[in-house]
Amino acid sequence: MAISVKQMLEAANAVVTKITPAQAKEMIGKGNTLVLDVRDAPEVEKSGKIHGAVNVSRGMLEFRADPESPYHDKAFAKEKTVILYCASGGRSALAGKMLKDMGYAHVYNVGAFKDWVDAGGAIEKPVI
After folding, report:
1. What 3-state class would DSSP assign to 86?
2. Average confidence (pLDDT) over 74-103
3. CA-to-CA distance for 64 and 56, rounded, in angstroms?
4. How far apart are CA 119 and CA 22, in angstroms?
5. Residue-level pLDDT at 1
6. What does residue 123 show for φ and ψ, rounded to 5 degrees?
7. Reduced to 3 states, what is the DSSP secondary structure of residue 59?
8. 52 pLDDT exceeds 70?
9. Rounded to the nearest 10 degrees, how much is the dihedral formed by the CA atoms of 50, 55, 59, 62?
């Protein structure tokens, strides 16, 4: 049976807790946190990213997150708290569900990069 994007987002939002920028800042302050930007590189180059975030485009997530993959990124560790975001919150929700499916237990979606910026969150400016 075919599944729609709406259904995929509903399933993702049911298992990945949505948090506010304030909650994300608190979690980051506690340490052992991976802040993950799942936007594509051109988006990040244009707008910047959350300070300290690792950018892994949604299409490469599984390869970077799997320790058995030759493309594994050492920033990923299943004992870390993972906070995801994208441009609007959709890709980060789907990415969060995938990480949960891969065995990451502490996964949260802060949603849109704009929400972080509007809340006064620290960012790294784009390189022009």
Report:
1. strand
2. 97
3. 8
4. 8
5. 85
6. -130, 160
7. helix
8. yes
9. -110
Region 112-117 average pLDDT: 96
Tokens 């493309």 correspond to: 71
For the whole model, what pTM was predicted?
0.94
C-alpha–C-alpha distance, residues 70 and 64, integer Å: 8
Tokens of 10: 């509903």
Helix (H, G, I), strand (E, B) or coil at 120: coil
Torsion of CA 8, 11, 77, 58, to 10 degrees: 20
Helices and strands, number each (H, E), in the chain: 6, 7
Q: Contact 113/50 with Cβ under 8 angstroms?
A: yes
Q: In 1-128, where does DSSP find H-type helix?
A: 5-15, 21-30, 41-47, 61-65, 90-101, 113-118
What phi and psi, each to the nearest 5 degrees, are found at residue 92? -70, -35
22, 119 Cβ separation under 8 angstroms: yes
Helix (H, G, I), strand (E, B) or coil at 62: helix
